[in-house]
Amino acid sequence: MVFSLAADLVVLVHGLFVLFVVAGGVAVIRWPRLAWLHLPAVVWGGVIELGGGVCPLTFLEVRFRRLAGEAGYAGSFIEHYLVPVIYPAGLTRGGQLLLGILALVWNGVVYGVALRRRRKKGRD
């Protein structure tokens, strides 16, 4: 029971991390100092996606699932949890690269807006 709950907690944290990578730049517009946490998260997420790696949180979750007597899974968090929702047929390497590039481009745009607002505020 404890290991199953621990695995569920890891899934929650992992999901929040993915959400932070994708949408955290919007929060940076409101709270610029958050960039010190967000930028490393974006780099980490980009490296994992573009490099085809698996996040250590995935290994931790699978380990807890197995310790709880549950079946673990192969592949990444995104493949296991998000792909069935977003890409029911499965995520190809090209699709994974596209997701990584889109996340980086999206965050680049958001940071551009944040920097523009900051510069405008400095002039006022």
TrEMBL record:
<keyword id="KW-0812">Transmembrane</keyword>
<protein>
    <submittedName>
        <fullName>Membrane protein</fullName>
    </submittedName>
</protein>
<dbReference type="InterPro" id="IPR021218">
    <property type="entry name" value="DUF2784"/>
</dbReference>
<feature type="transmembrane region" description="Helical">
    <location>
        <begin position="72"/>
        <end position="91"/>
    </location>
</feature>
<feature type="transmembrane region" description="Helical">
    <location>
        <begin position="41"/>
        <end position="60"/>
    </location>
</feature>
<feature type="transmembrane region" description="Helical">
    <location>
        <begin position="97"/>
        <end position="115"/>
    </location>
</feature>
<keyword id="KW-1133">Transmembrane helix</keyword>
<dbReference type="Pfam" id="PF10861">
    <property type="entry name" value="DUF2784"/>
</dbReference>
<keyword id="KW-0472">Membrane</keyword>
<feature type="transmembrane region" description="Helical">
    <location>
        <begin position="9"/>
        <end position="29"/>
    </location>
</feature>
